[in-house]
Design goal:
Elements: E1 6-13, H1 17-27, E2 33-37, H2 61-75, E3 78-81, E4 84-89, E5 93-97, E6 100-109, E7 131-132, H3 135-138, E8 146-150, H4 154-163, E9 169-173, E10 189-191, E11 195-200, E12 205-210, E13 213-216, E14 219-222, H5 229-236, E15 258-260, H6 271-292
Parallel strand pairs: 1-2, 1-6, 2-3, 6-15, 7-14, 8-9, 8-14, 9-10
Antiparallel strand pairs: 4-5, 5-6, 11-12, 12-13
Helix pairs in contact: 1-2, 1-6
Length: about 300
């Protein structure tokens, strides 16, 4: 954790229905809460929502998000528009973002469903045989070797920066796009060629075929887009089934103080479910903080 990391009781990663619901319940329980998100997620594109309780007329996803965020801000939740590039757990949580580091006693992941994997031909065939989605998890196996990181944003640069201390060579493959991240290290090569396919043998991946010819590699780390809830879960060692994060009845993961809610936990992917899970996670997080502080369990403020 950096010395100037701003301290909160709870940080929520995600500003959709699950994340904002969690933030509202937690702040009403007396916690200092920060909700972080880079964008507004898939709900922002929903034209009409007709099955959410209490709305006689349809409401757009954009309007529903606006109302939720405004409500949270009115109650005292701090909100931040930034990309989360990493989370560190050491006697609390430090969330690393493009706008600086933020620390908290407890954390809620509410990032929605994990992003789709890359569409590069043949790459999925080598998962576990040279293709990874987590530098923290698998970087050790590439000590002194050449690796490629596929992606063109801040998350890709973050993954590459973790690998540069282990691998002999790190190449950021932007797959035909410009690099959109700032502060890339001169030690890391940037290759903007379009990737046509991945090739290898029964043992492992061997090369990426690009529009500029073949590129021999020992491993490939996929870091396209932004870090998903599953990406962060893998780095922190949180139990998952490879698709979603596993939680108990109170939305707590196997890591003390870390909760998850909404689509990233699977189940019925509906706004009503996300809001309910967010409420449970927010209350459970408040209880966790109170226990750390040696106080009594929180009592939510019902009514106005």
């Amino acid at each position: 954790m950096t010395q100037d990391a701003k301290q909160y009781d709870l940080i929520v990663i995600g500003q959709g229905p699950a994340g904002i619901s969690a933030a509202i319940y937690a702040v009403r329980s007396g916690l200092r809460v920060l909700a972080i998100a880079r964008d507004r997620g898939s709900l922002d594109k929903a034209d009409k929502i007709e099955n959410y309780y209490g709305f006689v007329d349809p409401i757009s996803g954009n309007d529903l998000l606006d109302r939720g965020i405004a409500q949270a801000q009115r109650l005292g939740v701090d909100t931040l528009a930034a990309e989360v590039t990493g989370v560190v757990w050491l006697e609390g949580f430090t969330v690393e973002t493009t706008q600086g580091d933020y620390a908290a006693s407890t954390l809620i992941l509410a990032l929605g469903m994990p992003r789709r994997k890359t569409s590069i031909k043949g790459l999925d065939d080598f998962e576990g045989r040279g293709v990874s989605y987590c530098a923290t998890c698998d970087g050790f196996f590439y000590r002194g070797k050449s690796v490629a990181v596929v992606g063109n944003g801040e998350y890709a640069v973050k993954e590459a920066s973790e690998l540069k201390h282990i691998a002999a060579e790190v190449i950021i493959m932007t797959n035909g796009r410009p690099l959109e991240a700032s502060g890339s290290d001169p030690q890391m090569r940037i290759n903007q060629s379009k990737i046509l396919k991945a090739e290898g043998d029964e043992d492992k991946i061997r090369r990426l075929i690009t529009t500029d010819g073949p590129l021999e590699v020992d491993g490939v780390f996929v870091a396209e887009g932004t870090a998903s809830a599953l990406d962060l879960a893998l780095k922190l060692g949180i139990e998952n089934d490879g698709k979603v994060i596993l939680t108990d009845a109170n939305q707590q993961t196997n890591l003390p103080g870390l909760f998850a809610a909404g689509d990233c936990t699977g189940g019925l992917l509906q706004v009503a479910v996300a809001v309910g899970e967010g409420a449970k996670a927010g209350m459970a997080a408040a209880g966790f903080v109170r226990k750390l502080q040696g106080g009594r369990e929180p009592t939510v403020q019902w009514g106005g």
